[in-house]
Amino acid sequence: MYFRRPNFKMTFKIMKELIEKINEQYEIFATDAALQVESGNKAAGTRARKATLEMTKLMKEFRKVSVEAGKK
């Protein structure tokens, strides 16, 4: 019986895309958090918190994909 080998290239591509998205969200967070701290910009604080929520989702997805890749 033939079992299809998992597509490792696709898994690593997904992981790479997730890392890029996490980095983008971190840049948004860092910029907005600095604006809030330095100038008291409340809207920037809201954007910074939103970015942290998005990063959390992306990191959970990365962990899921990473664990699955480790099993293969």
UniProtKB/TrEMBL annotation:
<dbReference type="Pfam" id="PF07432">
    <property type="entry name" value="Hc1"/>
</dbReference>
<comment type="function">
    <text>Might have a role analogous to that of eukaryotic histone proteins.</text>
</comment>
<protein>
    <submittedName>
        <fullName>Histone H1-like protein Hc1</fullName>
    </submittedName>
</protein>
<dbReference type="GO" id="GO:0003677">
    <property type="term" value="F:DNA binding"/>
</dbReference>
<comment type="similarity">
    <text>Belongs to the histone H1/H5 family. HCT subfamily.</text>
</comment>
<dbReference type="InterPro" id="IPR010886">
    <property type="entry name" value="Hc1"/>
</dbReference>
<dbReference type="GO" id="GO:0030527">
    <property type="term" value="F:structural constituent of chromatin"/>
</dbReference>
